[in-house]
Amino acid sequence: MKKFINDPNDVLPEMMEGYLRAYGDIIERIEDYPSVVLKDLDPGKVGLIVGGGSGHEPIFIEYLGKGMADGASQGNICAAPSPDNILAVTKAVDRGKGVVYIYGNYSGDCMNFDMAAELADLEGIKTATVRVTDDVASAPKDRISDRRGIAGDFFVMRIAGAACYAGYDLEDVKRVADKANANTRTMGVALTPGTIPGEKPAFTLGEDEMEIGMGLHGEPGIRRDKIQPADKIVDQMMKMILEDLPFKKGDDVCLLVDGFGATTRMEMMIIIRRVSQLLDKEGITLHDVKFGNFATFQEMAGSSITLMRLDDELKKLYDSPMWSILFGQKGFSTHK
Known about the structure:
- This protein has two domains: about 10-180, Rossmann fold (3-Layer(aba) Sandwich); about 185-320, Hypothetical Protein Tm841, Chain: A,domain 3.
- The chain has helices at about 10-25, 85-95, 105-120, 155-165, 170-180, 230-245, 265-280, 310-320; strands at about 25-30, 35-40, 45-55, 70-75, 100-105, 125-130, 185-190, 210, 225, 250-260, 285-290, 300-310.
- The chain has a six-stranded mixed beta sheet with strand order 1-2-4-3-5-6, sandwiched between helices. It has a six-stranded mixed beta sheet with strand order 9-8-7-12-10-11.
- The model is unreliable at about 330-335 (pLDDT under 50).
- Helix 2 (about 85-95) packs across helix 3 (about 105-120) and helix 6 (about 230-245) packs across helix 7.
- The longest helix is centred in the last third of the chain and has 18 residues, at about 265-280.
- It contains eight helices and twelve strands.
- The chain is of the alpha/beta class.
- It comes from Leptolinea tardivitalis.
- This is Dihydroxyacetone kinase.
């Protein structure tokens, strides 16, 4: 795979150097680790750390901002950050009110963040954990705690960040983040594989094939099928999403269409068009739409659809002012 890299072993440090050149007025690196925190942290608030393996940009670094995350703890490409890495970020963002950890539900991340929480406790820092489990294809509903976290990370992190900025205490930040997670569902379809720099593609697909339910690291989906017209693909994805919560007539939802890294805006607009038609048919109100690359795997093509159901509290938090690296700086509001 052709890529703008030098030595594959230098991808992460060179990427971090680029981020610090681009956003050095906003973020600073944690010494000895490929992790960053905001330079300007509001005092007296609960801290919010997001994290996981690198290689999925813009998540996690570009999720930093006011009303979003305070720090991002990153590991190597597709690898969990170490406990000492997470602890260093925890100490940097703690302002005496405790720190919330939010990350996708993967075994390495779970183990290392749990170890970091124990180390933080020894340092006198209270922590709370929210594991995102939005991927409906990764486990049945009766094993929802086994599901992966994918693009729905964005909605859960946004709600938690808004709650921190609004002055919620540690327990209430965790409560609303858990509520956001419980009301968020995602389904993805891959059309081409992604790669780890310097390695072979993570999986193979025929020219006429798609993987329904593919994970963010190339984990197998629920089935492989022949490529179909966009509307038919979206109909299959939405059926699984809508039935899983279930979503129902009268609900207000936020929609996120993720491009995985290689899907064009043209294609995402076609997806948004069909999703909107289906929501209208079900009597579900579309409160806001986000589209683009949110959680990627290098040059993987395909898309995921995420819906978050809103109640009054979640809507108020979601619509509150924010800015982030991903969405642009000060003065931006999440809701259009």
